[in-house]
Amino acid sequence: MSHLLFLDESGHDRRDSPYEVIAGVALEDRDIWNLICELQDAELRFFGRRITPGTMELKARSLLKKKTFRLAGQMEPIAADTRAELAGSCLAKGDGARSAGTDGSGATRAELTALAQAKIAFVEFALELCGRYRAKAFASIVDCAAQKPASDFLRKDYSYLFERYYAFLDQKAIDGMGLVVFDELDRAQAHILVDQMGYYFRETAKGRMRASLIIPEPFFVHSHLTTAIQLADLVAYIVAWGVRIGHMDRPARPELQSMAEKVCELRFRTWREDGGNNHALWSFAVIDDLRPREERAGGEPE
């Protein structure tokens, strides 16, 4: 039995997002196909059709943007069967028609409302489905104002995430290895990350220890072809905009609160001994500064 950690990012363009998040969803290999089938069936049930044919994908920034909640609230909740029929009709008209208004050339008010309500209901179902399949969520969370390191070493948000994934695999005491699956990056970025991970897992003491349970070389996939990456995208977006733990003090979007609570329920927790005391190690890490100690003012080399 192996676990796969599917990873995606949110907010790394440092535009609107309050936090940079690398988020992952860990699944047992035996559960992945069944979960995918249930999600694909759910698309038909919620939208009246597959929403991801061809090159389309379920991106969180489309499903959960503020406009979705505004449109969903402009009418009373629509019965599930009627909602699916109207949502499917809206999708069939295409993006242009959905933005054309209600002058006869675009989607109707009921169709737009139904599609928005279906998007929210689908995401809530997807998060509940992750819980049923024992998925665990991981996240490294960095304030978008945090300073970045000047060095070429693996960034702290990645190493913290691998630390927690290792702890998860160690506690599970699985026979197989943990695999890391990334959403496809620009080729140059991918080469840099592979080199940084290689150095981390080969040349550092902590990395060598964690390589006993994590295959150090990641796999890269197209997100629109990989359903579990789309789940990681949902988690990353909800963490950035809705989850507030520890000293995260950026404003959260209140309409995402129930989803944020569901995401937090997917966290993993273990206990780590430090100086004779045990303290909780959660799968979500909030990081103030990405720079190593020697790059900070007055810091001593690590």
Task: Explain how this protein is built.
The protein is an alpha/beta fold and 302 residues long. It has a domain at 3-31 and 130-292: Nucleotidyltransferase, domain 5. Helix content is 45%, strand content 17%. The protein has helices at 29-47, 60-63, 66-72, 80-92, 94-98, 109-132, 156-172, 187-203, 205-210, 227-241, 257-265; strands spanning 3-10, 19-28, 136-143, 178-183, 219-221, 269-274, 277-282, 284-287. The strands form 2 sheets. It has a 6-stranded mixed beta sheet, sandwiched between helices. Helix 1 crosses helix 4 and helix 3 packs across helix 6 (109-132). It is globular. The model has no long low-confidence stretch (mean pLDDT 88).
